[in-house]
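HOLO CASE FILE
Compound: coenzyme A
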Amino acid sequence: MHVRELSTTDLRPCLALAADREWPHEDRKWEFLLDVGQGYGIVDQSGDLVASTILTTSGDLAAISMVLVASKYARQGLGTRVVRHAMAQAEGTTVHLHATPTGRPLYERLGFRSLAKVDACTGALNAEPSERTKVAAQDDLAAILAFDKVVFGADRSNVLSGLFTFASRVRLVERGGELVGYAASWRPGTTMESTIIGPVVAADPADARALIADLAIDAAGPVRVDIDDKHPELGQWLTERGLTPVFRCDLMTLGGRPLPGDRHAIHAPFMQALG
Ligand SMILES: CC(C)(COP(=O)(O)OP(=O)(O)OC[C@H]1O[C@@H](n2cnc3c(N)ncnc32)[C@H](O)[C@@H]1OP(=O)(O)O)[C@@H](O)C(=O)NCCC(=O)NCCS
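Model generated. Tokens follow.
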């Protein structure tokens, strides 16, 4: 069984593998990641996809995600193999990922170290319209890319160019005619109820709260926001307004290398798969 490349034509087996591990049916998210990143997988003798990962590289940063092994092949080294394969392709970059408690020991053995704890907070957000943000349009993409590059520390136009097609809504904050923050909301699955709010990128925490509030009001239903422990005030603001932390992951980098850019301005990742 060899590691082979996966593309959007492998969406269906990827979803079957996710279902085997009781992950939700996130068809829109998988398709997006297989499009902007490079998938790798292992197929067994019966032709079933039994291991997966997606590597998304933006400049000097590479994110590893969607690491899954079919339960019938658990603890036979397949998870380690696909992650090692992705790491080899990412040679020379700073490699980052979000680890579930199940995945964390595997990554630690491969040299990853935790930089932060990240809570997925979900629920209906009880918030008032901020009157601070406005709906963004495709014309704003260049300003968003320029702003994001400084904050993220890498040019991720390969990921963000499709933002206006993928996202349900994109909002921004301007001050003195300059973009000083933006955020998006999107649905991970065509049949899923919840809306994810991310990325949330703003220098001023009040702008981040305004973007989240206005996107949650637009969503008119349950939302999820992933908040790390470097932003405790935002976590508290969300829980006071009805969101509950439902699961905790670790943001890890290979060798514990610090991430570039102005990370404090990243209040929520686009998705854990991308940072
Ligand atoms: C996390 C996950 C990908 C691990 O996959 P895996 O193929 O079981 O991982 P590996 O076999 O490489 O390593 C797991 C363990 O098996 C052990 N192992 C590997 N080969 C072995 C073998 N031939 N015999 C016995 N044990 C073996 C490893 O040493 C490791 O032990 P440890 O957990 O005590 O450190 C898998 O459990 C999974 O899909 N979980 C659900 C999804 C998930 O949480 N993914 C992580 C996202 S961040």
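CASE NOTES: Residues 205-219 form the longest helix (15 residues). The mean pLDDT is 97.
CLOSED: yes
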